[in-house]
Amino acid sequence: MAKNDVPSSLLMASLVLSVWAAAANGHNITAILDSFPDYSVYNGYMSQTKVADEVNSRDTVTCLVLPNAAMTALAAKHSLAAIKNALRLLVLLDYFDPQKLHDIPLGTTLTTTLYQTTGAPGKQGFVNITNVRGGRVAFGPSSPGSKLASDYTKSVRQIPYNISVLEISAPIIFPGLLDAPTAADSNLTALLEKAGCKTFASLLVSTGLLKNFQSAMDKGLTLFAPNDEAFNADGVPDLNSLSSADLVTLLQYHALLSYTPKDSLKLADHPISTMATGSSGKFDLTVSSQGDDVTLHTGVDSSRVANTVLDDTPVAILTVDSVLLPSELFGHAPAPAPAPSSLPPSPLPSTPAPAPASKSAKAPSPLPLSPPAPPSSSPAASPQAASDKADVKNSSGAAELVRSLATLIAVAVAALWLLLM
Ligand SMILES: *[C@@H]1O[C@H](CO)[C@@H](O)[C@H](O)[C@H]1NC(C)=O
Ligand SMILES: *[C@@H]1O[C@H](CO)[C@@H](O)[C@H](O)[C@H]1NC(C)=O
Ligand SMILES: *[C@@H]1O[C@H](CO)[C@@H](O)[C@H](O)[C@H]1NC(C)=O
Ligand SMILES: *[C@@H]1O[C@H](CO)[C@@H](O)[C@H](O)[C@H]1NC(C)=O
């Protein structure tokens, strides 16, 4: 049976995702369009690209739908990633019924769309709606002087003031909209480098994880790529001090084995499993959102999801502003790594505290992992030595905390005793 071949984590992830989708309340664009055979091609692509989920997660939207002939013409020449961009530009994040369309103040306006939420520069993700002569309403790209080549043709359905569905004659296209990178012909490292994530890209290469990510691209992959500044931010531990197993775990923590673009993340009301999540669970992320801002929380830090670099079902590459630090590895104050030579000798007998490091190293990986090579730039004599040092640092930190707490209590007791005398 083919189903048995699907890694269970993948199955779990998709199950959880479909539960979230079903939990989203309000309208359902797929169900609305099901009763209009004229838009069946459009409806099919809305589901296939998951733009339907994005529409359903919004309280107030207007969908500009294309009749079958126009949609077929658009789809024939373009990749799914390009079609997705085109569909997103047809979802206005405001409620326009026919009346409002004809009553636009001053006869022309720019309105934002779902495409803008992917991190489009400037007003690229806006569309121009203009009342032209003879009661005609026309749509076009937002750039000044654009041709308004798409006409409002008829009203399809309204649920005031949540969703309005209007038919238009042609897609709204600006130059470059349909040049979306596709997963199939993408060089992952080149894409990441171009998006300002050179450090992340080079770590994927040096650890050998790139191959795992590439092989996951057929079935479902979402990457949260920290930009280069994120790796230099305060509080980010020195990656050279991590064992290579922990480094691999940290990188896997930035990947999901499912297709979860930004708007699908918003629907997440459960912690989401990452590629670092083993059979014991853990290494998960929680998601919060406010409007179009999506934030990932690790328990140690949080990061905003910034731009969409690639969105081609089933692959999404998103940039994040901060390195995601899993609490399983960094729960005990990551503290900017002091120079190894200045480490005080540990005053405690080395307690056999269960180091999260060794646990994560043994956690079963959902994909066959090629043996991780130590980062080429690592000055550590051996990855194990580096991890031992990290453990020493942690236990001495704990000892210091205990000592200062003890001192504090002693001082407080003494003060109280003096007061009572
Ligand atoms: C929306 O409607 C379609 C069919 O009309 C259905 O398959 C789908 O599960 C619905 N989605 C939600 C989130 O209820
Ligand atoms: C919309 O496009 C038309 C034609 O290019 C232009 O005259 C009008 O100023 C634009 N409207 C806005 C609000 O930019
Ligand atoms: C419109 O959306 C609001 C907020 O999501 C919801 O409470 C309301 O029931 C919806 N109205 C209709 C008619 O579905
Ligand atoms: C992908 O791009 C990187 C750098 O941009 C380059 O070094 C590598 O050779 C490319 N890989 C392929 C398969 O083209």
Automatic annotation (TrEMBL):
<dbReference type="InterPro" id="IPR033254">
    <property type="entry name" value="Plant_FLA"/>
</dbReference>
<feature type="region of interest" description="Disordered">
    <location>
        <begin position="336"/>
        <end position="396"/>
    </location>
</feature>
<comment type="function">
    <text>May be a cell surface adhesion protein.</text>
</comment>
<protein>
    <recommendedName>
        <fullName>FAS1 domain-containing protein</fullName>
    </recommendedName>
</protein>
<feature type="compositionally biased region" description="Low complexity">
    <location>
        <begin position="378"/>
        <end position="387"/>
    </location>
</feature>
<dbReference type="Pfam" id="PF02469">
    <property type="entry name" value="Fasciclin"/>
</dbReference>
<dbReference type="GO" id="GO:0005886">
    <property type="term" value="C:plasma membrane"/>
</dbReference>
<comment type="similarity">
    <text>Belongs to the fasciclin-like AGP family.</text>
</comment>
<keyword id="KW-0336">GPI-anchor</keyword>
<keyword id="KW-0449">Lipoprotein</keyword>
<dbReference type="GO" id="GO:0098552">
    <property type="term" value="C:side of membrane"/>
</dbReference>
<keyword id="KW-0732">Signal</keyword>
<keyword id="KW-1003">Cell membrane</keyword>
<feature type="compositionally biased region" description="Pro residues">
    <location>
        <begin position="336"/>
        <end position="355"/>
    </location>
</feature>
<keyword id="KW-0325">Glycoprotein</keyword>
<dbReference type="InterPro" id="IPR036378">
    <property type="entry name" value="FAS1_dom_sf"/>
</dbReference>
<feature type="transmembrane region" description="Helical">
    <location>
        <begin position="401"/>
        <end position="420"/>
    </location>
</feature>
<keyword id="KW-1133">Transmembrane helix</keyword>
<keyword id="KW-0812">Transmembrane</keyword>
<feature type="signal peptide">
    <location>
        <begin position="1"/>
        <end position="26"/>
    </location>
</feature>
<keyword id="KW-0677">Repeat</keyword>
<feature type="compositionally biased region" description="Pro residues">
    <location>
        <begin position="365"/>
        <end position="377"/>
    </location>
</feature>
<keyword id="KW-0654">Proteoglycan</keyword>
<dbReference type="InterPro" id="IPR000782">
    <property type="entry name" value="FAS1_domain"/>
</dbReference>
<keyword id="KW-0472">Membrane</keyword>
<feature type="domain" description="FAS1">
    <location>
        <begin position="184"/>
        <end position="324"/>
    </location>
</feature>
